[in-house]
């Protein structure tokens, strides 16, 4: 049975008990200061400046925002509109796509990966599907709203292009050989639409608990509603929504490839009682059988800090560890 928050919470006056997080994980007051110091990078600036700024942002924060990125505002606006429309459709239209089958790659579900066995649920619904190569997957995407495939298809291609462009800047900054981020390392692109309905008690629950992403690079559009927070130096910082800007963060794979030079920062999503929040997230990941390891040219001290693995094995372990970055990276660390 579908148990989407967007369905049953329409009439919920109070937060159900199984959505209440332990005291030390609760967001407390929603009024966390919006962070002015997460770097905002202008991609229309000079090449050498952007290489330097992106590398610095990935070392310090693992997070940055990009403006003047070349993705058309119309495509971004149309995509936000169509994904919101999806979640506003009548329940039975959304529920056609509902599945808890871990193998199924195109689906709608709620909370985390294992709803039945979770102690606490997250206040979010999610629609996700692969999008690269587009021709291979688009026939599995939602048929309604009727322009979903067309609009989201264009968005996925543009965001992929932007992601590869930013990876190229990082490649240069790290001094990796040309072509390093080829199809093997970037061949999987997943589009994930998070929908966080209005919440009766945002101070007790989370849309997404603290985690780091398993991929290479995540590109997120959060519209105009804030809720994304980054954990930096023991503190939560809110990421300010900027018009048509993308929030970019690097995942575990890039931390490992860079031999720990770049960081995959922990982050979470909080909810609010005023309005629903919808975010569009693109994850670029290696193909399942790709072997990932620290790049030879980055290991300047001659000591690799992580052991090689197949991406699919890493991902399985990541899910088992409930996305706890310390536990996941620790497992792949080479002990001195
Ligand atoms: C994610 C994520 C944050 C948000 O989907 O991995 O961190 O604000 N999303 O939706
Ligand atoms: Ni994330």
Automatic annotation (TrEMBL):
**PANTHER family, from UniProt?**
OXOGLUTARATE/IRON-DEPENDENT DIOXYGENASE
Q: Which UniProt keywords apply?
A: Iron, Metal-binding, Oxidoreductase
Q: Which organism is it from?
A: Helianthus annuus (Common sunflower)
Enzyme Commission number(s): 1.14.11.11
Superkingdom of the source species:
Eukaryota
State which residue ranges cross the membrane: none
Query: Ranges for the Fe2OG dioxygenase domain?
Result: 186-286
Name the family the entry cites.
Belongs to the iron/ascorbate-dependent oxidoreductase family.
One GO term in the molecular function aspect is: hyoscyamine (6S)-dioxygenase activity
Leading EC class? oxidoreductase
Protein's recorded name: Hyoscyamine (6S)-dioxygenase
